[in-house]
Amino acid sequence: MSPETAAPAAPPRFAAAVANPKVMQRSLTLNEKLFLGPFLKSLAYTFSRMFKKDVTRRYPEQKMEVTPTLHGVPVLVMKDDGSPRCVACGLCEFVCPPRAIDITPGETDRPIEREPKEFVIDMLRCIECSYCEEVCPEEAIVMSSDYEVVGRRREDFVWNLKKLLKPVEALKARIEWIRKTYKRWDGAADLAPPEGGVYRDPRWAGKSKPAEHH
Amino acid sequence: MSSLTEKLVTVSDLPPQHDYGAGGRDLHAEPMEISMGPQHPATHGVLQCKLLLDGEKVIKIDPVVGYLHRGKEKHAEQMTYQQFFTLTDRLDYLQPLANEVGWALCVEKLAGIEAPPRAQAIRTILCEFMRLSAHLVWAGIGGVDTGAVSMFMYAFRDREALFDLMDELTGLRTNQEYLRIGGVGADLTPELVAKMRKWVADFPAHVDEFELLLTGNRIFHERMRGVGQITAQQAIDLGVTGPCLRATGVGVDLRRARPYLLYPQLEFDVPVGTRGDAFDRYLVRIEEMRQSAKILAQLLDHLPAGDWIAKDFKNVLPPKGRVYTSMEEMIHQFKTVTEWCPPKGEVYLATEAANGELGYYLMSAGASHPYRVKIRSPSFINLQALKPMTLGSYFSDIVAIIASLHFIMGECDR
After folding, report:
1. What is the mean pLDDT of residues B12-41?
2. Min Cα separation B217/chain A (Å)
3. Number of domains into which chain B is organized
4. Contact B314 A203 (CB under 8 A)
5. In A, which residues are within 8 Å of B217 by CB distance?
6. Is the dihedral of CA A56, A59, A65, A67 positive or negative?
7. N or C, which end of chain B is more exposed by having fewer CB within 10 Å?
8. Residue B77 to residues A13, A211, A214, B365: CA-CA distances in angstroms?
9. Does any CB of chain B come closer than 8 Å to the CB of residue A83?
10. Taking Cα atoms as reference points, which of B241, B233, B257, B258 lies closest to residue B376?
11. Which residue of A has its CA nearest to B287?
């Protein structure tokens, strides 16, 4: 059989079987065996680091630079009249992976009709994942820049509505970041739903959705 | 007794060539039983090793796992797909984002979603940064375990700088809940790309510094060389993956063997060892650090433009501005958060994490939470190699072997 008509060689079981560089061990040189030379060399290296710029921060005096992306503890946004933006829809309570949020909804005479009577976040459970902020349909719960939560008792870490409410000015940078980041394709022309006014889900083409959903 | 129950090995059972330098005399008739861990600084977390020693030689070792068991697989059955990301972070806590990437790819494969190119590039970047993060801890702690305490400082210097980058990208230093189904949580800004590029450009020189401190050091050499040797066949039989397998000369890397993300387009080498001892595992990881820096440099220079999350409103959250004002998007927001699910089916997807093949087996019954999740954790399976590596070696070699295996108990016990 000529090489052209020969059956192609079976492909290697793993594509990685081609040409892996070997890391070769080498014996120690005489200098290294005598130990003192490399020892002094690494000592010299260590000493030379003393005159380089510090890489550590003297923490309580020298604080970390706070950027809008930083996830501090989640807080509630307060309107100018002192009421929360929150409408107690409970989506953050649902999405919270460690179940740190506990909302007691109530009615109100304000136009929003519904507000949290009590809103409790257990900061000992909170993992600062920002899922609550991402799902909030009212921009009512945002991650603050407060990353130092201290207390003497466990109760100090269970923040209620009064403690959670923060004025908009204090959270401005983060709210701007949310608007910029979660805007995504807002305003794009092709954002409108396709014909019929419904989004088509290709996954369910020709299939009925599982019964659990209806 | 069942055949599974292992017979206790005593000195008299050992073949006569086990002389232990006693010159034929039976100096240690009674083997000594020692429990190492679970709170031992050298066992990397909460691993307990039940040892049977004859003098300084190990004649039996039983690793006891499960001290850090948190039931993540069972927890997954009560969490939504997005919520489970927060638990995958805490598997191998040295490389949280790489675990998230594995889960995201697994769910997306079942749901038939593809992340846009920019999101895939960001994910590849994160995978490599996390490999470096894990290898840096290994270099630092491995140095401490073998007596080179200053290594810890240099490795953690780089790791802290790396975490500053992750902090700026995700908002959290570790356990970043950054990945979303269909993409990532936020965009990679040009300023951050510039900072990452600087870190990556500096890094190979730092790896040379690690080598200056360790490779030619006689103490390190003698602690690691010829210690914990296993053959390629043994490693394959035990299911060892990752750098520990490659150190035995088997060049299997899932980034090449079953490519995912942007790895097929990238140029990098998969270093393999020759002997399969602790020193080879060290050399392979050092070389992998250089290769990761090479991959990162390629990715950061050719970062695709475009969306960082799929434009697929059945699967990802709709734009926020619309949620505030439009009923349609508001409903989608609620539906996606509470009821999103992939179709019925099952899928297994493995990625190459820093320690080896990190696989997720996911079974969906079409509900908003998984029906079953199984995590194939490389640390757990690599830990099996502890026994063949350790038997017959000295007691103090166990520390070097554990350091070179580098299993993470958070991932091992799940």
Report:
1. 66
2. 7
3. 1
4. yes
5. 32, 38-39, 42
6. positive
7. N
8. 35, 18, 20, 11
9. no
10. B241
11. A23
Domains of chain A and CATH, by start: 74-181 (3.30.70.3270)
pLDDT 10s digits, A130-140 = 899 888 888 88
- Locate B148 and state its tokens: 């080179």
Neighbours of A99 (CB within 10 A): 11
Q: Which of A32-41, A178-187, B121-130, B232-241 has the lowest mean pLDDT?
A: A178-187
Q: What is the pLDDT of residues B263-302, one digit of tens each?
A: 888 888 888 888 888 888 988 999 999 999 988 998 888 8
Among B273, B276, B284, B274, smallest CA distance to B227 is for B276
* Nearest C-alpha neighbor of A66 from the set B318, B168, B211: B168
Q: What is the CATH number of the domain that holds B280?
A: 1.10.645.10
What six digits make up the tokens of A34?
A: 């005598």
User: How far is it between the farthest Cα atoms of chain A?
Assistant: 91
CA-based nearest residue in chain B for residue A129: B177
- Residues B60, B16 contacting (CB under 8 angstroms): no
Q: Which domain holds residue B83?
A: 72-312+339-387
- Whether the CA torsion A103, A107, A112, A117 is positive or negative: it is negative
Please check whether residue B8 is in contact with residue B60, taking contact to mean a CB–CB distance below 8 angstroms: yes
Please report the ipTM that was assigned to this predicted complex: 0.78
A60 touches chain B (CB under 8 A): no
A146 at B interface, C-beta within 8 A: no
**Beta pairing, strands B57-64 & B179-180:** unpaired
Q: Yes or no: say if A141 and A78 are a contact pair by the CB < 8 Å rule.
A: no
Q: For residue A195, what pLDDT is reported? A: 46
- pLDDT tens digits, B370-406: 999 999 999 999 988 888 888 888 888 888 888 888 8
Name the residue of chain B whose CA is nearest to A197's CA. Answer: B328
Rg (CA), chain A: 30
Residue B130 in domain: yes
What is the nearest CA distance from B414 to chain A, expressed in angstroms?
Answer: 17
- In chain B, which residues have their Cβ closer than 8 Å to the Cβ of A70? 167, 171
Phi, psi of A78 (to 5 degrees): -100, 135
Q: B393 in a domain, yes or no?
A: no
Please, what sign has the CA dihedral across residues B35, B8, B224, B408? negative
In a domain, B14, yes or no: no
* Residue range A17-45: mean pLDDT, rounded: 75
Q: State the Cα–Cα distance between residues A191 and A196, nearest whole angstrom.
A: 14
Question: Is residue B39 domain-resident?
Answer: no
